[in-house]
Design goal:
Length: 345
């Protein structure tokens, strides 16, 4: 079993305090304020146009905030994909945000083999306008890519600077300088290119290179394809290949998912994802090490900055080459407090 962290009490106390606060709010008789995502339509996507490259558009040319949101998407697939990434708190979307934000996430990940793994994680970024509008302080994986495979949560614990070199409609380049464990410096560069495939589909390619002063070169290549298949519904495939010099082998991940915006709550939005994922590596031989399928439900709750989600899943794992594959049921519970630029100010 995975060892329990020594500070399990802290996430537990925080979770109880948040639940107690929510109960008090619910009993006060006051209706919670309307969330930013007020309706189950693409007109309410919670995306900043600067996040996907709008340097060549003038704000005065677009009369309202909603119009600016429409201007960033050339088709429904791109708009819905970006909205769901923003709603689910995907690291790949956070990596291109322009505002200051902090995510505090309490999670309990359990499976039959490894038991409980309780964590308190902080992710976010802080704008540094005194230095430049293109420079941000990022921490706890906000600059890392979303894992395209078994675990969608970022596992990076690095903190550092991100400098936006260019940001256009289709392409973006960022330079990064992080401090890892060791301590070690991790300079790197990230390139992203995205474009339409058709009226209802688009793709996104990301290439990331890092040099870890202790562990050597790191290379991550990702490709994702999204297709709009109905009102508020999206089909996505995402693949990732990663190489780390200290490990000496490649590992890879694939994830096929169906995401749908739900209209079951009038005040706060919710969404659901059905997915199947598989991955492996080429050492000591090329093999698929694990399969996983599951359901992920996420809802905004009581206040616009509070979310909860649960994710039951089944995994078919082969941890060692000479082991037989075995099924392991699991479930992950998360509670998240999301503070963005407006709330922080």
């Amino acid at each position: 079993m995975r060892p329990h962290p020594q500070n399990v009490q802290l996430p537990t106390l925080l979770l109880l305090a948040l639940l107690a606060t929510g109960a008090d709010l619910a009993e006060s008789g006051e209706d919670p304020p309307a969330p930013r995502n007020e309706t189950a339509t693409l007109e309410s996507e919670d995306i900043d146009p600067d996040d996907v490259g709008m340097d060549d558009l003038e704000e005065d040319a677009l009369p309202s905030w909603i119009d600016r949101q429409h201007a960033i998407a050339t088709n429904r697939a791109q708009a819905l994909a970006q909205w769901t990434d923003s709603f689910f708190g995907a690291a790949v979307q956070d990596a291109e945000r322009v505002d200051t934000f902090v995510r505090a996430i309490v999670s309990d990940q359990w499976d039959r083999k490894d038991g409980h793994d309780v964590k308190l994680r902080l992710r976010g970024q802080i704008n540094l306008p005194a230095i430049s509008k293109r420079v941000d302080l990022v921490f706890a994986g906000a600059a890392a890519e979303e894992d395209a495979g078994i675990d969608a949560a970022s596992r990076s614990e690095e903190a550092g600077l991100r400098i936006n070199v260019t940001n256009k409609r289709r392409s973006r380049v960022d330079a990064t300088l992080s401090a890892g464990s060791g301590p070690a410096l991790v300079p790197g560069v990230r390139f992203r290119y995205q474009d339409d495939l058709s009226n209802n589909s688009w793709y996104r390619f990301t290439q990331r290179y890092q040099y870890h002063t202790d562990d050597g070169h790191r290379l991550i290549t990702e490709l994702g394809v999204n297709r709009y298949i109905g009102e508020g519904a999206l089909l996505r495939w995402k693949g990732r290949a990663r190489y780390r010099e200290d490990k000496g082998f490649w590992d890879w991940r694939h994830r096929l998912s169906y995401r749908e915006w739900l209209s079951d709550h009038s005040k706060f939005p919710s969404a659901i994802e059905y997915y199947i994922a598989w991955g492996g590596r080429d050492d000591p031989e090329l093999r698929t090490a694990d399969f996983r399928f599951g359901i992920r439900y996420r809802r905004q709750w009581l206040r616009p900055f509070l979310y909860y989600e649960f994710e039951p899943n089944f995994a078919l794992r082969q941890d060692e080459v000479d082991e037989k594959r075995k099924w392991y049921p699991g479930i992950t519970l998360r509670l998240e407090v999301m503070l963005d630029d407006d709330l922080i100010r």
